[in-house]
Automatic annotation (TrEMBL):
<dbReference type="GO" id="GO:0008270">
    <property type="term" value="F:zinc ion binding"/>
</dbReference>
<dbReference type="Pfam" id="PF01155">
    <property type="entry name" value="HypA"/>
</dbReference>
<keyword id="KW-0479">Metal-binding</keyword>
<feature type="binding site">
    <location>
        <position position="2"/>
    </location>
    <ligand>
        <name>Ni(2+)</name>
    </ligand>
</feature>
<feature type="binding site">
    <location>
        <position position="73"/>
    </location>
    <ligand>
        <name>Zn(2+)</name>
    </ligand>
</feature>
<keyword id="KW-0862">Zinc</keyword>
<comment type="function">
    <text>Involved in the maturation of [NiFe] hydrogenases. Required for nickel insertion into the metal center of the hydrogenase.</text>
</comment>
<dbReference type="InterPro" id="IPR020538">
    <property type="entry name" value="Hydgase_Ni_incorp_HypA/HybF_CS"/>
</dbReference>
<dbReference type="GO" id="GO:0016151">
    <property type="term" value="F:nickel cation binding"/>
</dbReference>
<feature type="binding site">
    <location>
        <position position="92"/>
    </location>
    <ligand>
        <name>Zn(2+)</name>
    </ligand>
</feature>
<keyword id="KW-0533">Nickel</keyword>
<feature type="binding site">
    <location>
        <position position="76"/>
    </location>
    <ligand>
        <name>Zn(2+)</name>
    </ligand>
</feature>
<dbReference type="InterPro" id="IPR000688">
    <property type="entry name" value="HypA/HybF"/>
</dbReference>
<comment type="similarity">
    <text>Belongs to the HypA/HybF family.</text>
</comment>
<protein>
    <recommendedName>
        <fullName>Hydrogenase maturation factor HypA</fullName>
    </recommendedName>
</protein>
<feature type="binding site">
    <location>
        <position position="89"/>
    </location>
    <ligand>
        <name>Zn(2+)</name>
    </ligand>
</feature>
<dbReference type="GO" id="GO:0051604">
    <property type="term" value="P:protein maturation"/>
</dbReference>
Length: 113
């Protein structure tokens, strides 16, 4: 399961941060999951609930943002936002698009105690 390995990486990251900044408890985390990441936010939440049991992130509130995917449109010669990887350019309908990010999971904000 894709989401599970993402959550394990996220937990590693949180543990690293807790060592570096000397905190013991995470109270809130805000994540951004790109629209191209093929991650279902509900599945991600579920996987995170499993992975974080008995860890510093147990009980933390989790917010998940889904920023739009960015593509470069060859025909407009401009960067455009699209809702999915297979969507055409919203301005000219072109399919000659090159993805520019939007395919990763980022930790945006962390509240700790
Ligand atoms: Zn275009």
């Amino acid at each position: 399961m894709h989401e599970l390995s993402l959550c394990e990486r996220l937990l590693d990251l949180l543990q690293e941060e807790s060592r570096r900044h000397a905190f013991h408890r995470v109270t809130r985390i805000r994540l951004a999951v790109g629209r191209f990441a093929c991650v279902d936010p509900d599945a991600l939440r579920f996987a995170f609930d499993v992975v974080r049991r008995d860890t510093l992130a147990e009980g933390a509130a989790v917010d998940i943002d889904q920023p739009p995917g960015l593509v470069w449109c060859e025909d407009c010669a401009r960067e455009r936002e699209v809702p999915t990887r297979i969507a055409p350019c919203p301005a000219c309908g072109s399919l000659r698009l090159t993805p520019r990010g939007g395919d990763d999971l980022t930790l945006v904000e962390l509240e700790v105690a």
